[in-house]
Amino acid sequence: MMVDAWRARVKCLLKAELKRRKVTYFELADKLAAIGIEEDEKNIAKKISRGAFKAIFLFQCLAAIGCEDLRLGSAPDLLDQRYIVSPGAVSRMRLTRAARVLSE
Predict the structure, then answer these.
(1) How many domains is the chain partitioned into structurally?
(2) Arithmetic mean of pLDDT, 7-23
């Protein structure tokens, strides 16, 4: 699996959990601050947009929003879910390319 496909998968996963809980980046920054992690809304948006963040950031975010269980599913399922949850964040072309790479 290509690096871009893995980044898309991780980004989809985190964004889906945020959407599921109706947590904005601003609210996430507050929740992270409550557990001692200083991140501003702009920096959070950049990290998530790139999809290239450390596992520790992922776990900090999930802990901050109260996510105790995480369903990984298959890679194509996660990409499809990502498109349904927030169609503006990843272009249709990039999703199609990532899904094609994942299915190979």
Answers:
(1) 1
(2) 91
Q: Each residue of 26-75: pLDDT tens digit?
A: 999 999 999 999 999 999 999 999 888 999 999 999 999 999 888 776 65
- Token pair, residue 39, equals 């991140």
**Residue pointed to by tokens 């999809």:** 51
Spatial separation of the C-alpha atoms in residues 61 and 70, rounded to whole Å: 12
Which of 72, 83, 79, 81 shows the shortest CA–CA distance to 100?
79
**Rounded Cα distance, 57 and 29, in Å:** 12
How far is residue 67's CA from residue 42's CA, in Å, rounded to a whole number?
22
How many whole angstroms from its chain centre is CA 16?
Answer: 6
Question: For residue 82, what are the domain limits?
Answer: 3-103
Q: What is the pTM of this model?
A: 0.67
Closest CA to 88 of 52, 56, 32, 49: 49
Dihedral pair phi/psi, residue 60, rounded to 5°: -60, -45
Q: In which band, very low, low, confident or very high, does the pLDDT at 93 lie, cut at 50, 70 and 90?
A: very low
